[in-house]
Amino acid sequence: MSNLFWLTDAQMARLEPFFPKSHGKPRVDDRRVLSGIIFINRNGLRWCDAPKEYGPPKTLYNRWKRWGDKGVFARMMEGLASEAAVPRTVMIDATYLKAHRTATSLRSKKGGQAIRGVV
């Protein structure tokens, strides 16, 4: 797969201060795992569909789950947003909405009036 995502040296340098300390056994390559996590989330893939270049899917999931529970990713986002030289609004949103054709069934049948605020 030629369109894999890899964090650059500059991006890793900005993220490293937010990494938790490694206790005991050293972690596997942070660049590989974080790049894999970003690739999976960006493309909406299942963990088992991770390209082999990022390592075992279980490793990606475990790091995502552990660091997410510890608030590491939230601290990364807050820290990166606060580093902005010029004060500005930074909005980070990963939601994806898709309207389905059956959403029109929310209309009221009473007198042909639509429910206020819904349609």
UniProtKB/TrEMBL annotation:
Residues 7-77 form the Insertion element IS402-like domain. This is Transposase. It comes from Roseivivax isoporae LMG 25204. InterPro entries: IS402-like_dom (IPR025161), Transposase_6_like (IPR052909). It comes from the Bacteria.
